[in-house]
Known about the structure:
Blueprint: H1 8-38, H2 44-55, H3 57-60, H4 62-71, H5 74-97, H6 103-131, H7 137-166, H8 169-188, H9 208-214, H10 217-233, H11 236-246, H12 251-274, H13 280-297, H14 303-330, H15 337-350, H16 352-366, H17 368-392, E1 396-398, E2 406-408, E3 413-417, H18 424-429, E4 433-436, E5 444-445
Antiparallel strand pairs: 1-2, 3-4, 4-5
Helix pairs in contact: 1-7, 1-8, 2-6, 2-16, 4-6, 4-15, 5-6, 5-8, 6-15, 7-12, 7-14, 9-15, 10-13, 10-14, 10-15, 10-16, 10-17, 11-12, 11-17, 12-14, 13-14, 13-17, 16-17
Amino acid sequence: MFRSLSLYNFRVWFIGALISNIGGWMQSTAQDWVVLTELTDHDATAMGVTMALQFGPPLILVGVTGWIADRFDRRKLLMLTQSALMLLAVAVGVLLLTGVMTLPLMWVFALGFGIANAFDAPARQAFVSDVVAKENTSNAVALNAASFNTARLIGPAIGGIMIVLVGTGWMFLANAATFLAMLIALWVMRTDELVPRVKAPGAARLADGFRYVARRPDLIVTFVMVFLIGAFGMNFPIFASTMALEFGRDADGYGLLSSVLAIGSLAGALLSARRDRARLRVAIYAAGGFGVVSLVSSLMPEYVLYAATLVFVGFCTVTMLTTANGYVQTSTDPALRGRVLALYMAVIMGATPIGAPIAGWVATTFGPRAAIQVGAVAGLLACVIGMTWMIASGRMRRHESRRFLLTVDETRPLTIVAPEEFSDEVAATTPIRTIADDTPRAAKAS
């Protein structure tokens, strides 16, 4: 489960990311609460607009950010983006403490966070492949998710309590301080132990990532599933904050809900780390599970019961996303990994500007339970799409001897990517590959 931690570079990366993520979740809790209770009168629609501005840039800038992640030194790029995010957090904290912050100004800073994260996210995701060898990539991705969700377990709870005690502005300043942990981790890494990576071609090949994904039906299905859940199912700040208000709870009650969600998320990440490879069918099953448990959570009559169901919501969500992320990373050619991961991050983060305002409007107009049910339907639809593709592609069939048992063929060829359809420079580093479903390697030589 923890084999990647035997590597020095991954250990310092893991520790730095854990500390930084704790601060990030404290800031996220504070930002949601500021918009919902200080800058508006419980307006979930305004909260949805804030999320849309913060997560919209990855979708708009996807071509540029992916190319930059492939073209430049990712370690130095991350130092730059993390520094920018730290400065933005300091600015918001100061404006909140001085009482100058307004809703339009918060929207401007949300957009600033979004632009910085648009460049940070694909570089951070692809950098994992620079830190560990390919056979450990899936494990490292899952441990990254474990770090993220351990922070999610701690950060919102601390943030909720500290908001009540000292106010929201200090949460932004605390997050700014935690960025130093990530910057130090990047600084002390042993650069000679980083995995050499294939250099991406020049600026004229920005579209190679799009063409590559277009010829991979498994990636298209994965992206569609991630989009549906990202747009309509993962609006947890809206769901949890409005449900906390419905149950008569304050900021600490909202923070506790986020931490309870992280208990299941952490369990899902650790179980994903135990698997030797990322299987696409696991993501499909987890999407269906997300739909079912989200629907159940929307029917809970008490705060405690609702909180209990969030454990299972978190488990299914992270299992689906971690498996999808690991599958994309381990089945993509190295020369295009940054651009493909930029597309992946654009789908999952860029889905929020579409879904968050809708979820906020539904929560304001019809109540938070209706908004959660919309997300549940999206999860079930994602599962249906995935299962339909598996059956249509011939990977799922009835067992030869047992009438009511279905089996999955993991060795059936998926597609052939012809290098001549890409640029000459990409073709020079990309052999013809037959990519098999649920295969942890980029492909098998044909």
